[in-house]
User: Fold these one by one.
Assistant:
Number 1:
Amino acid sequence: MGRLCSVINCSTRNSKVTPERITLFSLPKDDYLKSQWINVVCAVNNRETNVKFVCAKHFKTEDIKRTYYGSENLGSEVNNADVE
């Protein structure tokens, strides 16, 4: 079973059978940032949500630092404009 974006109506999955390659970020370890992510996703979903992953589609491009090893999220909030 692959990973699934926690934002409602987002069909982004990361599995071996899905050809689409979109980065899914797990919740930050920092408690403050983690609570911000959860609050934004729950507000966008308009309900309590068990947030595990948020895909790159919901972040501004400048909030994602691309490195040799992959993507690293530097932003603190989910981009609400991209989830509606």
Note: The chain has one helix and six strands.
Number 2:
Amino acid sequence: MPKQISNTRTSMSTSNRSSSPSNVNTSVMNENEVKFKIASSYCKLKETREALIEMEGIPAKARNLQMNLLLGRLYRITKHNRSAIACYKDCLRHCPYIFEAITALAELGCSAKDIVSLFPQTPMRSGRPLSDCLDSSRWLQRYVEAFCCIASNDYTGGLEVFTELLQRFPNNVHILLEVAKVEAVIGKNDDAIMNFEKARSIDPYVVTYMDEYAMLLKLKSDYIKLNRLVFDLLNIDPIRPEVSVALSVLWETKDDRRALTYAEKSIQVDERHVPGYIVKGYLLLATNRPEAAVAAFRGAQELRPDLRSYQGLVRSYLALSKLKEALSAARDFVKAMPHSAKATKLVGDVYASHSGSRDKAKKYYESALRLEPGFLEAALALAELHKVEGRLDDALSLLSRYLKDCTDDSLHVKLAQVYATKNMLQAALSHYQSALRLNPQNEAAKKGLERLEKQMKGLDPDAPEDDEENDVDDADIDQDD
């Protein structure tokens, strides 16, 4: 805004007093609003520094709710966390229902008590008794507690509170999505899929967290639903980062390079979109680029550390044979989640990667199972350890406990591998077939069944084929096994 306009502001408003109110509003320009518009434009252009300069030019007392929200985002991007906290607190003083500010404060380390203390303590002028007003605000306090639990990696506590809120607000899409996301992170995949689908049935145009849903469908090898989801998302809003991540997940089985391009595009659209970094990291691991994968998982951790970023980081370091760094990352995860079976199991994975420390790995896997007796991944890892060290009966005894209540194809694959090692080929065949009934796309089951059929014909499954091309294929299969 040219300086002369602000100098002539008074004369313009005086000369227009006789005019209509709309003319007066047009002529009088608010300099702070103009700075806010300029900063918003810089944000769209990804020019954060210039946007921050404009916003800092607005006096603190003159900032409205929208201005504080934008300034808070800019401070978070530039890692000025204290200033970001101050802005988000001002947002909640204006209005306690700014969910973005609640989430941000929780992620920035504020306690639930501190956040709730910002809410207005007097009831609204609705004529209702004070007790009614206080009762109606309790759900908001519980909402704050849920996000603070998630931010501190207490996923179980957060899920309990969200489930309680869902009982009060049934079919609320926002809470359904939060519940589904937490379930996806902690491995309750079937429950998460059910809640994502329920949210979509209520609001077919929802895009939030749909990349998390896409990852679950890929994990379940449900490519029909995955294709339909991506098709719908492209018709709703192809620019959103969630859509790019979903596209990346879809292309992962067909073209790694194209999948990686979509993952990077999601980060370009929103550099704070954590699933984009996680998908990118695992794609880089799959394409044998562990050093680049480390950088991707580090990027996710800087934004919001969670189970998947820690797991990815440990696997990347193990792929680089950096056992010290892998162990350090796993122990950091244990510090962040001291009572987590998944964190404990991750330390066991590091020890299991080295033959000289398998006894330590066994202790950590057993500890993980004590923390969470139904934790199948820890049971599978411990069974593999038993198998490698020749304790086949121990492996079978452990895995058989999970057969009654578990419908996971990976359990049947592991049982089949142990039975095949014991030369109990018919039992191995039965479990490979069960795995493929549950998941026809299970590659480990397909390859295992192929080897088993050779064994049942009296052939050596590891013997090289006559054809040179088959030599290469068999070598690849053996390496995967």
Note: Residues 32-118 form a domain with the Serine Threonine Protein Phosphatase 5, Tetratricopeptide repeat fold (CATH 1.25.40.10).
